[in-house]
Amino acid sequence: MRIPLKASTRRGLSVIRRLARAALGATQARWRRSIRVRVVTTTLVVSAIVVAVLGVFLMQQITNALLEAKERAALLQLDDGVGIAQGRLATGPSDPETLNDVVTTLARRSGTAGLYEVILIDDRDPGINGFSSNAIKPDSVPARLRVQVERAPASNPYRTYGRLSYDDGTSTAGLIVGAKVNAYQIYYLFPLNQERQSLVVVQRTLFGVGAALMLLLAAIASLVTRQVVIPVRLAAQSAERLAAGRLEERMKVRGEDDLARLATSFNDMAANLQEKIVQLEELSKVQRQFVSDVSHELRTPLTTIRIAADVLYEAREDFDPLTSRSAELLQSQLERFEGLLADLLEISRYDAGAATLDAESIDVRELVLRAVGDTEDLAERKGSKIVQQLPGEATMAEVDRRRVERILRNLLVNAVEHGEGKDIVVSVAADRDAVAIAVRDHGCGLRPGEAHMVFDRFWRADPARARTTGGTGLGLSISKEDARLHGGWLQAWGEPDQGCQFRLSLPRVAGAELRGSPLPLVPPEVELRRAPYAELKLEADA
Fold it and tell me: Sign of the CA dihedral 348, 351, 357, 363?
């Protein structure tokens, strides 16, 4: 029958379980993180096992030594008693008074301490249990020992261990030795109280010494480990500060041992790393400055070339076919060159930290429609169709219109270029805190590891493949920076022959922290293929 627990009892048990789990978790975390705890704990466990084994071995040896000494003393006492009894009982059958007197005389020889008791049994009178000293019961002698003594030659001793019982109902462990004297059996019974007390004292002493030894070993292990762990911990802290950007961090070098060599090597590594990083920073500054200067300086001659190219392009119908085609090529390549310069200038602004956000509350669906309208002609030429999955109500968010439109155009152009003529799906979703836009193509996809590389500057999935849409190789890099400027995410997913999906997630309020996205990064149909039972489970839940 199950007895129901009170609500207060259940709450108390729940609190105890939570505290126990928290304590266990804290202990496991400390075990994983602290070399010192592991070394000291291991030392304690190993020393406890060694002390236990040695303690058991010593107790066995001491016990055997005490019992062997007791047996030798008992056999000497028995031999002395047998000699006295033979003299008193050599005349033949004796009356009970004489037998009692023999038992009393032999027992009196044990002294006032009562080192042993004596029992005398007459083999010729089985109806009498025997004669004993100091109220010890004759049945304290085991039947097995009686049979051995009865069948043995005269004066041949036997011994065993058993319980000594007294008339007052008490009992104790004891050593029993016996021999045959004429027609009688004489037994000496030695209580083992003193030996037991001695063993208890020895056991307590071994336990105390073992505990003290374990604590001493743990203290030694803690001290030794401290000398090693503290420098290692300081090295770890220095490495963390170095990784955080504090390139001037150095370790103190003490002595000439292995830890000192570690500190010296760390300092040398930090110095070399600081020097290389400074060199790279200077080189990067020079490179960014060079790109910015070149981009600005090229705009003036490019403007002049653009004017001349526009004149030639407008008058191309008056030229011969070869010259007319040259004017068209000049126009298209100038447009591509202008796009490259614009992208380089935008990248230089991000590198210089000069990019700013001009946020306003806008319906995100409007930005998607404008970006799709700008890309539809290209999609038609490629044989692709852009499918829109937009919510029925306004999806407002505080964003920079120009930057978000640029992100969407870059994603759509990239999807059309790599979509292999298949449909492009644009999805929009929003929740209370964020808005997300996903652009899905069904083209060649990405290989493992390329989902992060796709945002690198000038990176191309297939370097041997020629661009057909005039991209600069900076579009996705700029889009990534635009998303980061909003405090959002731009992420990519792709699998070979499964296409790609790019997801833009932005906070609905400018400056708010983005904690999640309303749209999944991996398309739902791919997730269903990965988990073949998911669809069945959804149907069962429905």
Answer: positive
* End-to-end Cα separation, the chain, in angstroms: 38
Please, what is the Cα angle at 457 between 454 and 460, to 5 degrees? 50
One domain for residues 279 and 186? no
How far is Cα 86 from Cα 184, in angstroms, rounded to an integer?
A: 10
Write out the residue range of the structural domain in which residue 417 sits.
Answer: 360-464+472-541
Q: 443: which DSSP letter?
A: S
> Is 205 within the bounds of a domain?
no
pTM comes to 0.48
Cα–Cα distance for residue pair 27/201, rounded to 1 Å: 37
Low pLDDT (below 70) residues in the chain: 1-8, 33, 90-94, 111-114, 125-129, 287-288, 290-292, 294-296, 352, 354, 460-472, 530-542
Q: Are 158 and 179 in contact (CB under 8 A)?
A: yes
CA-based torsion, 72, 77, 83, 85: positive or negative: negative
Three-state SS string across 5-69, please?
Answer: CCHHHHHHHHHHHHHHHHHHHHHHHHHHHCHHHHHHHHHHHHHHHHHHHHHHHHHHHHHHHHHHH
pLDDT of the residue at 232: 77
Give the SS3 label for residue 188: strand
Cα atoms found within 13 Å of the Cα of residue 343, Cβ hemisphere only:
22
What pLDDT does 464 receive?
45
> If we measure between CA atoms, which residue out of 456, 455, 420, 425 comes closest to residue 438?
425
| CA angle 259–265–268, rounded 5-degree value | 145
The predicted pLDDT at position 310 comes to 83
How many structural domains compose the chain? 3
Residue 229 placed within a domain = no
How high is the pLDDT of residue 267?
85
